């Protein structure tokens, strides 16, 4: 059994981790740290866990009792955590923030997108788990980059659910405002662009293309919808073959032959890809659940790889479907 | 032209008042007070008013320039306002809080439900505008009370939209929580019970019946859905006649011969009533928009009555329908 | 391995069964019959199953190859099926329609509510799986009936999601109509009343009380919200003890000490109960997912009991939470 | 008073026309034709009109009694209607289908986008009312085209509400499917491209640019959200000036200085435009209500122009805001 600690246990991504790990056949949640909720039952915060667990949040950090910790604190906090805590050499770390996603001197975290870096993840000590938009967009583009086929401008329309913005109530997460509403934000300057471009260049070092991304706040709770397009000179069939070959050995990403709806991946760790060729453009639809494949599910997928398990262990999740 | 001042202009009910009054053919918004937003454009807070008005919020209270003020501050604040401000004798006041709804010594506010108190409203100086749940529930029960026919227990299921809880973001107004969700609150102890019972006793002084009301938070923004039932010994046709006769002279309340959906009253000042008799029970469906007939529209209806206008002036609002 | 056949495989309840059974460690889906979809991939109809299964719908009914069949056809069709097909003696049947829920001469189906009939279910050949409203309402009332404490009128407010009405598009399931809408239907005459009363009388034979139920169409996809109340002379603590004792040995029903939101049971087989005492009334909130505990999850729970498995096998489902 | 006839009165656009025209101070609905609903009360089909009108649908077509007819039948039906009916010379026609939007020999309909063709509309006999996506997208691009500034590829992300697909229930308008869902359709081949390109070329005859449009089905009922971008060499301030100057004399289109949410135009005839410059791209957000500015409101705006009224007559609609 892999012994797990969770740091920052009261937020959305920690809740999803718990929902997954409590049923994971090879993992055991040893402690869940939360400074704001220490002493409270986990099921009083993540109320759907009523009856699933009697664990309480703790302020303690018993690193020696666990094999891996997941960092689920806000962005910026993980860096601080790593600097102020002396972790045992044997302890693996999976960080869900953006603090360690970009390569730079002294950063020994492996970027944890299994469809890009599976072999490195297997032997990594520390993982920087990708962002939600970043995951959905990379799944749309990596097969082309792997073939060096990102030749011109890349255009991304991507819509996110409200859970992507976390649990702190804000004006744009107010039900009265958001219900039946749509709005753009961080236009052409979303913070996930850096990690996306880093990955595209990893596969296609020449990539320095025009990259356009207008993020949109959707009127739903879970799910990332991406419609990307770029120039592609081959046929639709050739495109499909490139994607199918690329994802053939990756158990969570599927190329659909029917035009899909976003909800079919909600509450799963899947990515669904759909392709159409029009004129000289290849249009790629990419669907993921921002909290699972875009966060906590992918974190567990990384844990599985790091500990030599089948990638899918504990991730055969029932889709919500409706 | 009726000159209008609004106190507490940044909240939901003030926004709705402005949306109505800016198109009211006989009213003119003279000032809109807001301490938190003084100096800002109204259309920067109520953004849908872009292009409709150039008025700014003010901290001033130029009472002498207006004929009527609407109090749109939080509950408790209206009482404080009336105590600390010396108002001109000629100035009429319409209070949207619950501060003056209950009769008590020294309270000279008339309870502003036109279907109950139209004649008193016409000559009132001060109006206590009813609560949203209170409006929907009273429209369901007043015709029976007027006939002295509330003989046994009264049972109310009523569901409110998120705008009923105001614009301050809270845990239960968070989109991620509320979307697709339902929950009960203030079970059997909602603060509107007092005004409802007061009105029922006004029409049927003997009323001291078992009154049961479980308020439910709905997964929608606007609208109050009420399903009430009570023992009724007559036929369904007799019930319909009682309701039709009662509402015949009230231009905003209609008895539907088809089972209605709540959304058909949204964005209007209407009440829609529907009746079915089963066994010895009369079931009454009552539909209203919590922000209009349940708040700001009714406040304008009261203003119209107080100033001798047709009740409907400025209230022929386009339903949103979808 | 339990070998399973599904009859009527294209509808919502069959889809949910498949989502559960494909991950069930002790069951194997042997065939899925659908006359309208024979020859099509299951994952082309239940599109979220892309990558989970390569099974196709069939027109065949190879009864001898399976241990149990689930009947997922429309109401009325199960009776017809049982009359026109000669089933092997050893074949167990779990029917999700209402055709066999009411006891009558010649009906050998056991009513499959484990919290009521667990021992009978364990030895049953045929099961009539309860209705969704019926499940939620019975979970709210059974503990009182078991104590003979349903003394007066019983009042039910219950709200259902759109999936309760099946997948055939209708006027009231049209998104443009239903979004942000609420409406009552089958007022005081819902078809589930019969099975509810049958169960209440099974536990409290004297029960002949005034039973009031106004079903409401909610603006959500999954979930049954029930708020029931009835006279109760004991204290809130006594009520809680009665419910906790009753559900203590039932692994899917939990008494919450916090006022819950419906969504916390969505995508699970759980029931969550919450109690408040006001004046002489006990108010009982009961939450279930209409497609799982109210249909396909309960059907699998029944299968587990019939085949000697732990009731929870394959039913540790990840809640969707948001 | 302008006397109005509506052909095809039972659908969504006819309902919206009625909601607007019943309160229009200078128009009078003389007849509403519907073959499927002849003899039924209008308020039994458009149920929110309960109490607003006692008109019944008719099968008659008393052309001589009206000054203008609105064609609200399905696409293809308007052409048939014009061919089979002999209309009085003085009768004006406003067609809401796409049948006459594209210029071709013998088509004497003026394309009814007032922001493009106001002077032609004023003297037109027949109007082809623009499509909903087409309206939102043209409002985003016309000011650039008017300056000849569409120099490179044009990229459109646009999301529509469910009412855009009409009232016939379909799989993708089923609440259970559509709620919380997103999907692309008619990728790069939406039928509105023709009218958009026609208008862009009208203003910038050289326009033959790469035009990219992936339409998305949104999880809301009303509203078109457009985020468009194209290369622009000037500054953000220069862009804002171009747009403000262009829309200065058009009373329904406003340039917002704050990043807007789509819902702020819902239930109004407004267009709201917002601009940001990033790198060498100008990003244009354009918001409209698909049923009003994108259909029936614009049709009334055209009627106002054709009959010499102020464009805004009857179109000061209360926004729903929430």
Automatic annotation (TrEMBL), chains A, B, C, D:
Asked whether the UniProt record includes Transcription regulation among its keywords, one would answer no
Question: Which pathway?
Answer: Amino-acid biosynthesis; L-arginine biosynthesis; N(2)-acetyl-L-ornithine from L-glutamate: step 3/4
Picking any one GO biological process from the record gives: L-arginine biosynthetic process
Sorted keywords for this record are: Amino-acid biosynthesis, Arginine biosynthesis, Cytoplasm, NADP, Oxidoreductase
**Where does it primarily localize?**
cytoplasm
Q: Which reaction does it catalyse?
A: N-acetyl-L-glutamate 5-semialdehyde + phosphate + NADP(+) = N-acetyl-L-glutamyl 5-phosphate + NADPH + H(+)
Where in the cell is the protein located? Cytoplasm
Q: Report the enzyme's class at the first EC level.
A: oxidoreductase
* GO CC annotation, single: cytoplasm
List the PROSITE patterns. Answer: ARGC
What EC numbers are recorded for this enzyme? 1.2.1.38
**What CDD domains does its record include?**
AGPR_1_C, AGPR_1_N
Active-site residues from the entry: 132
Annotated Gene Ontology MF terms?
N-acetyl-gamma-glutamyl-phosphate reductase activity; NAD binding; NADP+ binding
* Name of one Pfam family that matches: Semialdhyde_dh
- Is the keyword Manganese in the record? no
Residue runs in coiled coils: none
Residues of the Semialdehyde dehydrogenase NAD-binding domain: 3-124
* Function per UniProt: Catalyzes the NADPH-dependent reduction of N-acetyl-5-glutamyl phosphate to yield N-acetyl-L-glutamate 5-semialdehyde.
Identify its protein family.
Belongs to the NAGSA dehydrogenase family. Type 1 subfamily.
Full protein name: N-acetyl-gamma-glutamyl-phosphate reductase
Q: Per UniProt, what is the name of the gene that codes for the protein in this document?
A: argC
